[in-house]
Amino acid sequence: MPAPPSHRRYTPKRPWAPLTDAEWAAILPHLRTVVMGQGRPLADARQRIDAMFRIAATGQPWHALPADYGKPDTVSRHFRRLARMGLWMRLVGACADPAAPAPLRRIEHFIVRAARRAMRVLGMDAAVMAEKLGLLSAMPVLPIYLTRPYWFAQVEGEMARLLRAHRDAPLALPLREMRGWLRLLRFYAGKPWHRRWAEP
């Protein structure tokens, strides 16, 4: 179910800055969970996450990454790998938790921006998840553009049932009801076009 309206929010912007010790400590358990048993531990993990947050928060292309952070291709490849392993959406879920620690709250903007960038890898299912969690800034599109496959199928089924029930008497088909179902069907299908990014 979608988050209650009081939990649906846009995250305030925050200029990028390197992670503090407390902020890194808040991220580390989530990072360890998703990478456990996935190859060798990364020696410079904190610097690598800093690099990813820098690009995500500033909206710059990967090739703009300063040389101190390593090769842009390597960092972007690692970012996509972490996306597929579920780190960014896991952190989004942690931020949506009312009991989230203060250091994690402070970097929520970095996290939702990273999640938005990861949508290119994860697809729209992750955007639907972000909406359900109530962190609208993690969505790459406005909520009205989202496709909702489950509800689309439910409405489609109801329309098919109504048509079958009036198969022998099509003139008795309740047109007002059908129009209502059709409006819902269009809504749950999402919009066919959207801007690349929604406003944060």
UniProtKB/TrEMBL annotation:
Pfam families: DUF4096. Residues 19-91 form the Insertion element IS402-like domain. InterPro entries: IS402-like_dom, Transposase_6_like. This is Transposase. It comes from Roseicella aerolata.
